[in-house]
């Protein structure tokens, strides 16, 4: 009896945790820590908190390719790991976070686009992904975006993924927008949607979690090029040059390849070798 009660309590605690993790992702608020805490200059880096293998909050730890690239670049800029403050930047809030000075840099599967470049600066790219579809493991009728007519599709507000669907495939597709891709994966698991769309590397990471094991598959027919840049406030040409130098070194010294391998381990994913590792754009 006693054991049983404890089990229920533990379950209640776990679901409370899951709920608070969820609402954090939706609100997209900073962690609440004082930026200047502990003295010494810190750098505030925007990342995703709910993208396994890219940017993931696990207790006090932040894991994934974006967080590892961020640590490497920050070190080259003179910031040790304990001078980094990671802040959650959901897709819809990234430009605003840079414009308001809430973060100094963003490493968050952030595609370089002309629309975004009108508001902020980008260094990079440091990776090139492609937009793809995630479906139930036993799905056979969705093999590409042209099969989406009459289907419910989930993507994320403020992403190029949602934008590309609206621009090129809107007809007959019921697009559901959520704050993050983990929310979309939940909708797919419950059958509320037929597919999720975003970058293949994000989908592969979601499909490979313990929780989702065996449930989903990535269709594997990418239909865009998503060049991941480092978001910087408008007018950051010098900082952009420094970041590009760091990225070029990271590729040159073999770290890039190691970080791709370690962060996609267990996921069914191979980067497009024709596009990776990429050359960095000139800073404007
Ligand atoms: N790379 C795309 C974008 O920047 C999709 C992934 C994301 O939302 O972070 O919008």
Could you provide a short overview of the structure?
With 284 residues, the protein is an alpha/beta fold. The protein has helices spanning 2-27, 65-76, 94-99, 114-117, 160-168, 181-190, 200-207, 237-252, 255-264; strands at 43-47, 50-51, 55-58, 61-63, 84-88, 105-106, 121-129, 131-136, 152-156, 174-178, 195-199, 216-218, 226-232.
Rg on CA atoms, Å: 19 Å
CATH architecture tag of the largest domain: 3-Layer(aba) Sandwich
Main β-sheet, in a few words? 5 strands, mixed
| List of distinct ligands in this structure | glutamic acid
Share in β-strands: 15-25%
The CATH superfamily name of the largest domain is: Periplasmic binding protein-like II
Tally of separate helices: 9
Q: Mean pLDDT, rounded to whole units? A: 90
Helix content, binned percent:
25-40%
**So what's the CATH class of the largest domain?**
Alpha Beta
Oligomer: single chain
Number of domains: 2
Q: Write down how many β-strands occur, each being a DSSP E stretch of 2 or more residues.
A: 13
**Unreliable residue stretches:** 1-38
Structural class assignment: alpha/beta
| Envelope shape | globular
Strand order of the largest sheet: 10-9-11-8-12
| Spatial separation of the terminal alpha carbons | 67 Å
Order of helices and strands: HEEEEHEHEHEEEHEHEHEEHH
At CATH level 3, the topology of the largest domain is: D-Maltodextrin-Binding Protein, domain 2
């Amino acid at each position: 009896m006693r054991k049983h009660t404890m089990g229920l309590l533990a379950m209640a605690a776990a679901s409370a945790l899951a709920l608070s993790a969820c609402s954090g992702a939706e609100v997209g608020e900073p962690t609440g820590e004082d930026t200047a805490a502990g003295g010494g200059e810190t750098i505030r880096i925007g990342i995703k908190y709910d993208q396994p293998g890219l940017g993931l909050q696990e207790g006090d730890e932040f894991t994934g390719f974006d967080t590892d690239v961020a640590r490497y670049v920050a070190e080259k800029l003179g910031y040790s790991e304990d001078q980094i403050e990671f802040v959650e930047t959901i897709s819809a809030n990234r430009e605003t976070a840079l414009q308001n000075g809430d973060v100094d840099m963003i490493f968050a599967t952030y595609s370089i686009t002309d629309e975004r470049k009108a508001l902020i600066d980008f260094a990079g790219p440091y990776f090139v992904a492609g937009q793809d579809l995630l479906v139930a493991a036993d799905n056979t009728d969705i093999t590409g975006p042209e099969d989406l007519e009459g289907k419910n599709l989930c993507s994320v507000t403020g992403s190029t993924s949602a934008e590309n669907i609206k621009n090129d495939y809107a007809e007959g597709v019921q697009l559901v927008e959520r704050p993050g891709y983990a929310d979309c994966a939940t909708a797919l698991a419950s059958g509320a949607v037929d597919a999720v769309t975003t970058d293949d590397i994000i989908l592969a990471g979601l499909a490979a979690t313990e929780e989702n094991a065996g449930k989903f598959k990535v269709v594997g027919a990418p239909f865009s090029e998503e060049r991941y840049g480092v978001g910087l406030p408008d007018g950051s040409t010098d900082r952009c040059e420094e970041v590009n130098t760091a990225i070029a070194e990271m590729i040159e010294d073999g770290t890039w390849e190691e970080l791709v391998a370690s962060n996609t381990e267990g996921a069914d994913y191979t980067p497009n070798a024709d596009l990776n590792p990429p050359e960095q754009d000139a800073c404007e």
